[in-house]
Amino acid sequence: FFLLSAILNKLVACCCLCLQVVNMASLDEQVRQVKELQTKLQNDDFVGCDQLLSKLKISMTQHTFPPSAASEKEIAIARMTLELGARLCIKKRDIKAFERYVAQLKVYYFDFKQVGKVEESVFMQELLGVNLLCLLSQNRIAEFHTELERLDPSLLQSNLYIRHPVQLEQYLMEGSYNKIFLSRSNVPADSFRFFIDELLNTIREEIADGFEKAYTTLATDEAARLLFLSDDTKAVRTIAEERGWVLKEGQFEFPDQSDDVTSLPSKELIGKTLSYATELEKIV
Question: What distance in Å separates the CA atoms of residue 57 and residue 45, rounded to the nearest whole number?
Fold first, then answer.
């Protein structure tokens, strides 16, 4: 019995050693694939990047789940894989996929940081800043402030990547659209440019909505100036066609929105208010 037990223990030890060797070899292969993915991303080889990402994601399921049991090296590889995936989505202009990658990265950025599992990533602040700008560009202000609450307050002014979207949100609340348009030429990283353009398009949509409510007609050059498209008449005409504006003699005629205005039942509201006041007086 003791001899059999000793033999079993040796077999288990050998199996564990073999698994460790296989695991290390697999991790080395992942490191090689991550480096290759970085190269392909720099060369804008999107097809090759997608193929490598699929392989790396499968490898992640073999090593880093549950994540709390993963080693520091496994966590670093998984985090780098997700960061490269997020950067790829920015280049591909895929907002939904970018948001999914950021949601996964938050585990590595915040949860592992609290338990001291791994050092802070050099791309962390940049991607979190891009995520803030992504939310701002979609006018998701409540979620924008929720994300800000997760960050160290000192970063809001001291970190370049975080300060930039925070300033843009302030300009947006002030209505200082000209400052937002000027900021496009002064972004902290190229990864911000796509979402800056999305934000500018969102602002133009808001301005165009204002045209339709405030004017019946507006000169084309004035519309271009207010839309910050004075040098791009083609873009102005595209917006006009999408929104159904009619161009006549150098002016845009806007659709009649009188049917969209909901009339308030003023007499009924006044009657109910007076009855409430009467009832309150009886109670007093």
Answer: 18
| Number of neighbouring beta carbons within 10 Å of residue 27 | 16
Among the listed residues 56, 51, 55, 78, the one whose alpha carbon sits nearest the alpha carbon of residue 67: 78
* Partners of 218 in beta bridges: 252
What confidence tens digit (pLDDT) does each residue in 200-256 have?
999 998 889 888 888 888 898 888 888 888 777 788 888 888 888 888 888 888 887
pTM assigned to the model: 0.76
- Tokens of residue 161, six digits: 């990547």
Tens digit of each residue's pLDDT (9 = 90 or more) over 215-230: 888 898 888 888 888 7
| Distance (Å, whole) CA 82 – CA 108 | 10
Q: Using CA atoms, how far apart are residues 225 and 236, in angstroms rounded to an integer?
A: 10
Q: 148-163: buried (b, 16+ CB within 10 Å) or exposed (e) per residue?
A: beebeeebeeebebbe
172: CB partners within 8 A, 6+ apart: 136, 180, 203
- Which pair of structure tokens corresponds to residue 122? 């050099």
**Beta bridge pairs of residue 219:** 251
90 class by beta-carbon count within 10 Å (0-12 exposed, 13-18 middle, 19+ buried): buried
Q: How would DSSP label each residue in the chain?
A: -HHHHHHHHHHHHHHHHHHHHHHHHHHHHHHHHHHHHHHHHHTT-HHHHHHHHHHHHHHHHHHSSSGGG--HHHHHHHHHHHHHHHHHHHHHT-HHHHHHHHHHHHIIIIIHHHTT-SPPPTTHHHHHHHHHHHHHHTT-HHHHHHHHHTS-TTHHHH-HHHHHHHHHHHHHHHT-HHHHHHGGGG-SSGGGHHHHHHHHHHHHHHHHHHHHHH-SEEEHHHHHHHTT-TT-HHHHHHHHHHHTPEEETTEEEPPP-GGGPPPP-HHHHHHHHHHHHHHHHHH-
